[in-house]
UniProtKB/TrEMBL annotation:
The keyword Magnesium applies. This is Nudix hydrolase domain-containing protein. Residues 8-142 form the Nudix hydrolase domain. Gene3D superfamilies: Nucleoside Triphosphate Pyrophosphohydrolase. The keyword Iron does not apply. One of its GO terms (molecular function) is metal ion binding. The lineage of its organism: Eukaryota, Fungi, Fungi incertae sedis, Microsporidia, Nosematidae.
Amino acid sequence: MPNENDEDKRTIVGAIPILDDQKILFVKSRHENWIFPKGGVKKSEKSYDAATREAFEEGGVIGQVELEPFCVKKGVSFYVLSVATILDSYPESQERQRTIMKMMDALENTEVAEYVREIVKEYIRKRIVEHTDDFLGFLDIL
């Protein structure tokens, strides 16, 4: 027998808005935690486009999104968005607070949702590995 809730299930995506590769934008959840902008994918919309839209609507940022999800947490696919522009006015500016934190500060801030801190930690680890590979490649040249 089909579950009545099956029709209500939507694909949910989120954006990880990165500024200057050192800071992250967060929005306030309804539970008063800092989280990443997220929401449902509309019909005929690509997941990464939905993540970009949510970052604009909830956080007032515009940027370049990666086409593959960075990670999946709590059933949400999160996409890294390199922020190019921060807008003063945006669709949910009256409904949601936003803040920008240095990545290391976000890891220590208990107002940042725990699963979000896990994502930040994963992002930092990935960046360290990428930079280590770059550095090792540079040593090969020498």
